[in-house]
Amino acid sequence: MAEGLIFVAVLTSPVWLGHLLIRPHLNPAIIRTLRKRGTREVKSRIAVWDPSRGASARLIGRAQASYWLDEHGRVQMLYRPHSGPERHLTGVLPPPPGRSSSIRYVVAAFVAAAVLGDVLGYEFASGDDTRRSTVGVMASMGGCVVAYLAMRLGLVAAQLRKGHHRAGQPE
């Protein structure tokens, strides 16, 4: 049983690390910083916020972005992609974002699926402890796969609803 829980910790650690690394580049973190300081520099391998398309729009790809507020309170952005031309984008500063915990729920559901799979696999397997631990680890992996597929489907549905765009696509 202990081996299975160690495996669950190792298996789910990329999810926690990904959450910690991506979170500062999400739109709410950028908007909060702009409201406090007026400027923000972002280096991202995934996506950056596009202020010209609203609060939830992103430009996907490796890039550096500089955000600042002009004298009229509009967000100015200098977008420097890893490859391609530099662009200057402008948009309105959205209202302050609420404290969304949906990402925390997704991560918690992923970990819960892994732990539940391990515990159920171990408890319902027959044989010696080694066999039961092996079944628990396999059930844990199955729980992670199911949670991952559910998460991906949910994220794709959310992106389609909110209208995220890829960098370089015509408007």
Overview of the structural elements:
The chain has four helices and seven strands; from the N terminus they run H-H-E-E-E-E-E-E-H-H-E. It has a four-stranded antiparallel sheet with strand order 1-4-5-6, with helices on one face. Strands 2-3-7 form a three-stranded mixed sheet, with no helix packed on it. It is elongated, with a radius of gyration of 21 Å. Helix 1 (2-22) runs parallel beside helix 4 and helix 3 runs antiparallel to helix 4 (129-162). The relative contact order is 0.16. The mean pLDDT is 77. With 171 residues, it is an alpha+beta fold. It has helices spanning 2-22, 27-37, 102-124, 129-162, and strands at 39-44, 47-49, 58-60, 63-69, 74-81, 87-92, 165-166.
Keywords:
7 strands, 3-stranded mixed beta sheet, elongated, 171 residues, alpha+beta, 4-stranded antiparallel beta sheet, 4 helices
Helical percentage: 40-55%
What are the segments in which pLDDT stays under 50 over at least 5 consecutive residues?
none
What is the strand tally? 7
Termini gap: 53 Å
Category by helix and strand content: alpha+beta
Neighbour order of strands in the largest sheet: 1-4-5-6
Q: pLDDT average, as an integer?
A: 77
The total of helices stands at 4
Largest sheet descriptor: 4 strands, antiparallel
Q: In percent terms, what proportion of residues is strand? A: 15-25%
Radius of gyration: 21 Å
